[in-house]
Amino acid sequence: MTLPAEPSVALISGFVALTLALAAGFVWWTGRYLLAGAWLVATGLLAWSGGLAKFELPPRIMVVFVPACIGLCYLARREGWWRRPVGLLIGYQAFRIPVELLIYQAANEGVAPPQLTWSGMNPDVWTGITALLLFPFAHRLPRWSLVLWNIAGVGLLLNVVTVAVLSMPTSIQRFEPDNVWIGFFPFHWLPLMGVMMAALGHFMLFVRLRHPNDAVERSETSRGRSAGDVVRALRRCAE
Questions:
Q1: Do 168 and 178 form a contact (C-beta atoms < 8 A)?
Q2: Do the Cβ atoms of 22 and 40 come closer than 8 Å?
Q3: Is 68 exposed, middle or buried (0-12, 13-18, 19+ CB in 10 A)?
Q4: Domain spans of the chain?
Q5: How far apart are the C-alpha atoms of 131 and 44, rounded to whole Å?
Q6: CB of 10 closer than 8 Å to CB of 159
Q7: pLDDT (tens digit per residue) in 97-107
Q8: pLDDT tens for residues 171-217?
């Protein structure tokens, strides 16, 4: 199996650059640089070897994607990655704008199926646009409005994932042309980085909204401990 068209250097470079930017953001957010590096290398080698371009049920890329996404959300909950300002958790989703621009370009080049673009069956770009508009004053909005925004974003994400799966050349295929490009390097990082980071962002925002005061309390406790440590250190020096 091969790509349906030859991608341009600009398209390939765009996907690599966006993936590296997402990985850098993940490291800044979590401090898990070894996890990010290992994931990029492992999935990159798997795609390069053709291991992800297998679409018999279940598609190989979904076998990797689903457990990895669940595991990432588990780590986020356990390690408190969601303890960030609400505005940051919403603005985070603006990265979906360049993702959708790259998908649109891929479709124009004949690499991606057109149903995955905003001119087809994927209006997911609106999540990124609204995130960019909302994040500066998200902390002033009522909690219920943020919950609704997050639910809408999850719905748009699930929509494009469903269209993508039903466009794969399997026995349950419903849409054409075939969606095979995500099994090839570097486009495999669309689901294995882009979609995963989007899902992670929605999960963290749900947890944050469920515990509106927890992040503040933890932050204040941490600052109190730090101040106490400084005072104790100064006393020891004086002695």
A1: yes
A2: no
A3: middle
A4: 9-214
A5: 29
A6: no
A7: 999 999 999 99
A8: 999 999 999 999 999 999 999 999 999 999 999 999 999 998 775 44
